[in-house]
Amino acid sequence: MSPKRKLNFSSGPAALPEDVLRNAQAALLDLDGSGIGILEHSHRGKEFGRVLERTESLIREVGNIGSDYAVLFVTAGATHHFAMVPQNFLGAGETADYCDTGIWSGKAIEEARRVGSVHVACTSGPAYDATPVHQSWSAAPRYVHYTSNETIYGTQWAAPPRAPAPLVCDASSDIFSRPLSLDGHGLIYAGAQKNLGPSGISLVIARKDFIATGSKDLPPLSQYRTYADEKSMHNTPNTFGVYVIGEVVAWIKAQGGLAVMGERNAAKAKILYDFLDRSNAWKGHAQPHSRSIMNITFRGATKELEETMLALAEERGLSGLRGHRSVGGLRASIYNAFPAEGVHRLVELLDEVERGRA
What we know:
The chain is α/β, with parallel strands linked by helices. The protein has 2 domains: 20-255, Aspartate Aminotransferase, domain 2; 257-355, Alpha-Beta Complex (Aspartate Aminotransferase, domain 1). It has 10 helices and 14 strands. The strands form 4 sheets. Strands 2-10-9-8-5-3-4 form a 7-stranded mixed beta sheet, sandwiched between helices. It has a 3-stranded antiparallel beta sheet with strand order 11-12-14. A two-stranded parallel sheet has the order 1-13. Strand 6 and strand 7 (155-156) form a beta hairpin. Helix 3 (79-89) runs parallel beside helix 4 (103-115) and helix 9 crosses helix 10 (340-355). The longest helix has 21 residues, at 258-278.
């Protein structure tokens, strides 16, 4: 890690691999020896065509995604899909089941209710400190929506819920952080800015036969079939975003793939969770069986202790640790590119503050 760069614990946009940043820096001036930078190339030109093809190919290889699934790039964040999913798949007289595990799943529920009937099949509120153990499905849900990792509360599904309908997953904060489970999924969407790339672009992995069941009475860019039929090129895509995603997935492949990523991320998270479990001043929010390996949320014994910690962290180059404004406390987001060294440094500072030695 460059000595001038801070340790970025931000929940997103988040830390990217330095190798990727350097490659992107060079590509801004000259993409693959073409003499023109990635920001300047036509999306219809052969140079970007190779970028798009390479990125999709890497995603399929690293994610073990077969030809029965489409890989789509949508120029929007994940919240765009909160409305797009029910607009496509929730018809008149149908019900969609949703799992309520926090703020982001709650926002998805709100948007779906604008479109049609929603049944909340399970909830972990009001504490939102665990993923639900029991679900109560509706009679014949059109689809079942869940959020695999709740960034704000620091909870994560250890495995997808077993549902009686196609699963739709918001995987924004843990996509490609561990082996990808496609079983039972009709559609997975993820904002890129946490584990895959820059903000302003989302990755969608969707079963082609599920896409085909979507509404045709929507504008073209509101239909997933448009992105599938036209290979995400109905309009000008986020060309730079596609490029960076490809570089990040190539980096993941070079690290050993998703299995290695999962092991590495679990080991990083364990360093901090082990400290919190034995601390008298700091307490983790999520219950052990639901702990996120991406976003670790915790509180101090007092508000004053938290503020002391946050001020010292900034002084020492540990940035982005303040918890979400809706819940407070602290949050350490340790996505794929975040180094284990940074977790050790955080634990050392937490221990110093607890012992009054900072």
